[in-house]
Amino acid sequence: MLRRALIVAVASTLLPVAASAQTPIVFVHGNGDHAGLWDNVIWRFESNGYPASRLFAVDLPHPSASSTISAVELNRSTPEEQTAALAAFVTRVLLTTGAPKVALVGSSRGGMTIRNYVRYGGGAAHVSHVITGGTPNHGVFALPTVQPNGEFNGAGPYLRGLNRGSEVVPGVKFLALRSDSLDKYAQADGAGLGMKGTPTGVDATGPALRGALNVVLPGTDHREVAFGPAAFRAQYRFITGRAPTHMDILADTVAVLEGMISGHANGSPTNLPLANAVITVHAVDAATGQRISAPAYRAVTTHTGRWGPFRASPGARYEFEVASPDSTVILHVFRMPFPRSSRVVNFRLSAPPATRPDSVSVLIARPCGYLGFGRDTVEFEGARAAGIPPGVPTVDRAIRWFGAREPVSVRTRVNSETIVVRTRPDDKRRLVSAEFQRE
Fold first, then answer.
1. What is the C-alpha to C-alpha distance for residues 78 and 74, in angstroms, rounded to an integer?
2. Which one in 77, 151, 263, 287 has a CA-CA gap of 20 to 30 Å to 316?
3. pTM for the complete prediction?
């Protein structure tokens, strides 16, 4: 009997809990971002038995903030517009799952939107947990004379309203995650905001909330404090009440991929679906970046902007080519293998980078974290990437130009991961990107 009891106890730690017993979680991206940045966090929840059917990431349609909290600007959003979009998404999740409440996890501006929804948008009745990661809860600066009506001014009306009285809402559990010193938007000096030598009125404690459980994640930057492994550990423990069993992302036998294609409009990134975009997926050689065979997948988006499903091999490398009749760029994205399925493999077409005669550009991008000289290894062909400043990590990409006479393989590296891309110099609109999503 004892042996049987032990077997049952061990098995219970490995099998996922029934979906109906798990609180749905909605992940909310930050300023200018999209849902795809949450993949690592979602995969880690899944790797610990959390049902995929209870994990959601929202694409807020106009992710960039307006110049003031009330300005109506094309392809930008006010706090109230963001809050309304989040409220609508939460309602759909509750209807889909039948759950009484959700947990909300926000990165940066996403945490401010969550707080506004819970405090002033009726969200307290529908939310059990709130987690903010790197959210500038007291502003990226607190200066009455600088952008006085800006969303990110701790001395402005929006954040003063959110912080008036109690900074948390009764009946909802709050966790605030912050860095010890490397969050670019929680610095006493305004250098990272283009105001070097100007005191900002905030410091590393700015993302903390009075009345919340406040957890410091040493060495994390502004995005890692929401998307990184340490952030996941804290999120999982706070929502489930126990530590995760697995910190690594466990590979599945198949990775079914889908997502949305969007673009830029009026100088701002959007999460609006792009129709008539063409996506072509090629399996590539990991050592050279060269395409191995005929396209593994091809689709033209409809009004939904959605692509997929594409059944990928969890161990394979792929190149994603994305183009649109109205875009000035043809995007070629190379990524590490996908260990699990994802519904938010999103691509956003942007303006092409600056060009140089007889050269093509290769971009290293790290959407889920920043790059800091001295902290991170960032290389093109074994040489250190230029343009990455020392100190607090403040940039998330690096670029280098290569000769355009013929295609070349370029080995890119960020810390322990390497991606080899292949240039395509036949068209100046082509932007080749090594996208480092993993942690």
1. 11
2. 263
3. 0.94
